[in-house]
Structures are given as C-alpha cells and as structure tokens.
Automatic annotation (TrEMBL), chains A, B:
Positions of L-homoserine binding: E189
EC number(s) given by UniProt: 1.1.1.3
Protein's recorded name: Homoserine dehydrogenase
Broad EC category: oxidoreductase
Protein family per UniProt: Belongs to the homoserine dehydrogenase family.
Organism: Microbulbifer okhotskensis
Length: 435, 435
C-alpha cells in the first residue's frame, strides 16, 4: 500500500468542520476506497469551531504555516474570499502542494491564472465543492460526459434563490416575505445581494461553462439578472400558462459564441428541473451524444459540501505519485487546448419572452400591442387577459412571445410602454423550453 | 504528448456503431480532453453495420483476433451475452488488455471472477455503459460519492418498463396494450421477459449495490418481481392516494444485511424520481454526508450508451501507463477490502404496502380486514372505498398499510383472502417514501 496522504485544511467554518466530521466518521471506508491512508497533518484556522473536535490534531492560527509545511501534500482551502485565499493557494502551489477548494469566487475570478501556476508546478487544483455542493457535477462534465460536445446546460445553482421562488409559488408570499423567511432559517445572509442578484450563480455558471466548452473562465462576461423584481403574480400567471419561474444559470454553444447568462426564466412545468424545489440544486446538461442528463442534490450545507471536498481529496491522493498527464486536467483540457472566450453579447441572445403589461381596460390595446410586436417580427404565442377587478382601471395583459432577439424585444417593449393605453414598465422574463 | 491509445472494438450492433459514429464526430475534442490520440486499431464483428462507416478501419470477422492483437491496448466488448463475451474478455485480460464493456449481464453474473483476473494481470475493467446508459452513475457512486456511506439507492433502470408504466398512467392503457406499443416502437423485444420481469434491472441493481456497499456482486440474491401483473386501476388508485407506480431497483444498507430488490413500487408523486417518465432512467442515491442526489438521463440508445463507453475509454487511456493503484479499482475498492454479501431475506424486508381487495358490498368487511391487520401489528394508514358500480357485487377496497415485515403481511393477506366477504387474491404492491 502506498504511504498515507497528508492533508492540510485551512478554514474551520461550516465546510471545514463538516469535512473533519465526515472524515472522522467515514475515514476508514474512504481510505479503503482510496487505497491509501488519509492523515490530517495540520489545520490552519483563526479560531476553533465547537462543531468539530480538533483536540487530537495539530492546529495553527496562521494558515500560511500550512502552505509552507513540507509534510503537507494537499492543501484544502476552505477560508473563502479572493484575497487571502488567493495568496494562500499561490503559496501552496509554489511549495508543490495540490489544492482542493470549495471557493467558487476564487476559481471563477482567478482560476485561469491559478491553473496556469499549478501546471507550471506539476500540481493540480480540484474544485468539485465549488459548484452545486455535493452534486458531482464537475466530475460529470469533465469525465462522465467527455465523449460529448455539450450543447447547453442550465442549472438551479443557488439554493437561497430557489428557496425564495419556491416559497413565493407554494405559499403565495412576496419576495420580501420569502427573503425574510430565508434569512430567519439561515438560508440567506443579512446582505442577500450575492445570492439574490445572481453573482453566486454567475460564479458557478462560468466554472461549468469553462469545462463544458473547454474555454477559459470568463466571469466578467456573464449577463446577470437577479430575482428581487419577481412578483408573486408573475409566478401565478406563469403557472396558468404551464410554466414555473426558476433562477437559472444558462450556458449555450452557438455559432457566434457562447451564451453565459443568469436570470429568472419561465420553464415548462413538465420538465424535471422545474420540479426542483426549496434549497435543492440541479443542473441539466444536454450533450450531443447522451442527450439530456440531470444532476440533483444539496447545493450547500456542511456535510454535503464536505462530500465533494473528500471526493476531490481522494482523486488527488490516488494520483499523488502519478505523472501530471495521468491526472484529469483542472480545466478539463490542457490550457493550450482551450478555445477562446467569445461570449455572445446579450443583445444577440434569442429566446421567447413572458411580458406583463398594465393596460387600461379599453378596446384596441391588444391590437396596438400585437401590431408593435409584429413590426419587430415577434408573434404572440399565448395570452392571458382576465376580467378587470371591479373599480380598477388597469388590467394585466400577459403574453408569451415567439423567439426573438433581445434587441428587437427591447424595441417592442419601449414602444408598448409609450402607448396611452399602457401604464408603467412592461415586466419581461425570458422563457426557455429546455427541450 | 503520450503515444496514441489503440482501441479494439468487438461488436458492431447498436452501441458499437454509436461508438464509432460519436468518435468520428467528436474524436478530436475527446483526444484533446484525454491528452492523447485515440486510434481504432481493429474492429471485430461478424457482419458490417450499415449505420456506421468502417471503410477506413481494419475489420476482422473473428473477434478473438482483437483479443490477441498485440497492438490493441483496450478491448471494448460490445457483443453482449455471457458465454462468448466472457471468453473474449478473459482472453483479452490474459493478453494484458484493459476492458471497457457495456455488458450488464456479464458484470453482474461474472464480475467477481473477471475483476479478480484483471487484478492479477494489472489491467482494469470499466463498465459505465452497463448501467443506465449515458448517465455517469458508476463514476458518481465510485468516485463522486466516495466520502459517503451510501444508505440506500433506488433506480428506474429499465426504460422499457418505465415506458410501459408511463403509457398505462398517461393514456389509461392496459399492460398488454402498452407492451404492444413499446414493441411497435422498438423499445421492447419480441420476448419482453428480460425487461418486464426485472431481470435486466436486477443486473444493473447488483452492479450499483456492489459499488455503493463495497460488496461482491450478488446477482443470485436479488429479489425480483416484474410489472406484468400491474393493472391500470392500481395506477389510478395509487394516483388518488398521491402516489405513482414505478418499477424500481432498490438497495439498502440495514444492520442485518443489504436489501436487494426489484419490484413495482408506489412512491409519492412529489418526489422528483416519480416524475421520470417514458424510456428515461434515473437513480436516487442517499449518502450519509451528501443526503439525496439524483442522476437522470437516457438509459439506452446507440449514442447515449456510446457516451459512457467513450468516458470509460478516456479514463483507461489517461492512466494507461499508471500503476494499478493509481487507477480507480474496478470494484470501487481493492477486492481484499470488500465486505461480505449478506443479503437480507425478502421475508425480513420492512415496507408499507398497497393492498387492493375485491370485497362484497356488505357491512363488516372493513372491520374484519382491520382486525386481521391489527392482529399482525399492521395499521391502516389510508383507505379508498368507492361506491360500488351498479349491478356489480364486488367493490375494490384499497388500503395503504403501516410499515410491516413481509412475513406478517403475507399472513394478514392470506387470512383476508379466506374471508367469505372477499373474492380472489389480494393485490399487493410495496410502498416506499424515498424520503
């Protein structure tokens, strides 16, 4: 049997303590599957965590001790953030250590540079835990679907946002009410921007897109739209039309470039992914050979994320003495084999749209709207117009359009908004069939 | 760059031709991801297949030529069956070749022996394509979830059966009608026994259970019950109770042994897996760290299965020159680390049950049934008794029971069947919450 692999863990927050606890419970079985013993050589953490027992372990308050510890083979970065974490990871790589990280921001924003550095030093960076928690989606994209040209992928990759949308649909809550509930349950931060505005999802999306399309990480090119403007009435109207509203990260290969976008999306309720509720995550991947595949599970949580961290540790440990080319490359392909980062401008993205128009209850509104759409080459595929509520002058008109490019749609919407018979802004949400 | 890996493909049926076609289309990208060129050195097939082009390839009519060809590194076995295929694989292993196979029967029934032989010769056997077609479930169980103790798994792993049950539910068809439809569409064989009686599912189940529980393959210990006795009225009553009927393969870890069973099962319709329809497959895996995860996709088809074959080829190719311990072991752990094959006898399996009783429309039936159940420690959790159809003396009484062991349930059912007020056999189907 090969010698034990020596692990250094930096950060003892939720994921760090979860990793220690799972290793304490399942370490014997994990080592048997790995074919070598796993030893926690050192822990770097500014403070202890009462949720795990480190009394038998070597703990330092300076995480950089771990990066320079000659006895550490693998540094597990679980401190989060992109400043100290980046420095820590760089230092560890320069000292010849392999990296396992759960840090989506670090990979999405600095992955290109770090993968390059790792390649120079003959070590690897593993980051299964950075996307969709315990779901083995990185491994599936990078290895399981390696025979495919991925056509597109679409993921519910932020549990907080999915919880809020689920509460809004199931309980008729407003966004603010559902957010407050998520905060009370610890699913959302006091400042929820990162989750509800789609930044967290954008981090995860570019990581998946990079693997699916063998392209460098292009975080600054993602179009990102949050869910804070979704109203419960839109969820209800979507349902009347046979759709659910989900906050999706979508990446798609087109002739003109890759689409990279995070936004609320109407999807047909009969799709499996439309029925992924609460804090759960799921990623739907369409490969040219395999067709549609879906991966579902917990996207966060101490032990769910630890599950991914440990899977990475085992992968790295198994090939510790192997040659670099015998390991799966961090980026899915050697960096020299990556293509460009041509991302399709948002104006050129073509989808159907859900439009909600606040119209005066007068004859002729519908024909005016239809004419405007038609002039832009957009047809109306479905329409809901309920009876006006007594004593209210405005009726909501809900439309599903044919597929249109963003630029034409914007033009139509701005013309609709100038109609005398229409009040305020038109609500618009993209529609994807995912078929 | 390492030298090209040389592949020998035996069998040019659906999967063989699909593999050639996908490699012809995506070979360049696959090679880039693999880090080495892939060359099809030789094909062994008794006849050509008009669905793929072999004009530029070396084809032999004797598949054993491939097993003895010194230029072949990996033999891809796609001939099916367990006699010639076994001899072919044994010969190839003895000649130092790695094996990639889509043959579930071969692995389920002879895997223990073949893994042993492969270990002796320092080669590996990869079989992602043997379970659930293109879904990377083998990789997920063996690598992605390596940090977990899997508690249980439940899979829709036979597309033919799932198609039939879906047609019965959605269109109110009888089993015979749905089967005829499946045969007309090419989803079912002329002799459908293998699919509808659960033998195919049992093959796949033991392979997954072996990996999940690090146990030898135990095909002869699976309890198997088919779907040919499911009536459309049972599907309808299940729906009234909030359930779907699915043909599941279930493996569960218990203190007394592993449950291994394939049978029709009522599952709550709100579960994601209850909404997997048509020929699609899905596997739900509950790990102690990650919680529930689900993997969904096409369980059969030329290119979907080819996707899994190619993923295996790349895994083997990448570690061609690696040491055996640097590869993921075929059985998930070294054979010496496997536990026993203690399988829980079917009599000791505890689940809830759906019972349908044909009763005379007389007072007292319900109290008699309730007393019998109660005497066996079984309580009634839900009940449907519709008005009797005019001019019919028998009314269907449908019951969901509390959890009970098979032995107690059998006793209760046999007593119910002897009641004067009850006609014929009691229909019984297991119920699983999968929660």
């Amino acid at each position: 049997m090969p010698r034990a692999v020596r692990i250094g863990i930096c950060g003892l927050g939720t994921v760090g303590s979860g990793t220690l606890n799972v290793l304490a419970r399942n370490g014997r079985e994990v080592a048997a599957r790995c074919g070598r013993a796993l030893v926690i050589e050192q822990i770097g953490a500014r403070r202890d965590n009462p949720n795990c027992d480190t009394s038998q372990l070597s703990v330092t308050r300076d995480i950089f001790d771990v990066a320079s510890n000659p006895s550490v083979d693998i540094l597990v970065e679980l401190i989060g953030g992109t400043t100290v974490a980046k420095e820590l990871v760089r230092t560890a790589i320069e000292n010849g250590k392999h990296i396992v990280t759960a840090n989506k921001a670090l990979i999405a924003e600095h992955g290109n540079e770090l993968f390059e550095l790792a390649a120079q030093h003959g070590v690897t960076i593993a980051y299964e835990a950075a996307v969709a928690g315990g779901i083995p989606i990185i491994k599936s994209l990078r290895e399981g679907l390696v025979g495919n040209q991925v056509q597109w992928l679409a993921g519910i990759i932020n549990g907080t946002g999915n919880y809020i949308l689920t509460e809004m649909r199931e309980k008729g809550r407003s966004f603010d009410q559902a957010l407050a509930q998520a905060q009370a349950l610890g699913y959302a931060e006091a400042d929820p921007t990162f989750d509800v505005e789609g930044i967290d999802a954008a981090h995860k999306l570019v990581i998946m897109a990079s693997l699916a399309f063998a392209m460098p990480l292009a975080f600054d090119k993602v179009y990102t739209e949050g869910i804070s403007r979704i109203c419960s009435e839109d969820i209800r109207y979507a349902e009347e039309l046979g759709y659910r509203i989900k906050h999706l990260g979508i990446a798609r290969r087109t002739d003109k470039g890759v689409e990279l976008r995070v936004h609320p999306t109407l999807i047909p309720e009969r799709r499996l992914i439309a029925n992924v509720n609460g804090v759960m995550n799921a990623v739907l991947v369409e490969g040219d050979a395999v067709g549609p595949t879906l991966y579902y599970g917990a996207g966060a949580g101490d032990e769910a994320t630890a599950s991914a961290v440990i899977a990475d540790i085992v992968d790295v440990a198994r090939t510790l003495e192997a040659k670099p080319e015998q390991r799966v490359p961090a980026a899915g392909v050697a960096l020299a084999e990556q293509g460009g980062t041509q991302v399709l401008p948002e104006e050129d993205v073509i989808t159907s749209y859900y439009l909600r128009i606040a119209a005066h209850d007068k004859p002729g509104v519908m024909s005016q709207v239809a004419t405007i759409c038609s002039d832009q080459g957009i047809s109306i595929e479905a329409l809901i117009q309920h009876e006006p509520v007594a004593a209210e002058a405005l009726v909501p008109v809900v439309i599903l359009t044919s597929r249109a490019d963003e630029a034409s749609l914007r033009l139509a919407v701005s013309q609709i908004e100038t109609l005398d018979t229409v009040e305020g802004e038109v609500v618009r949400i993209r529609v994807e069939s995912l078929g």
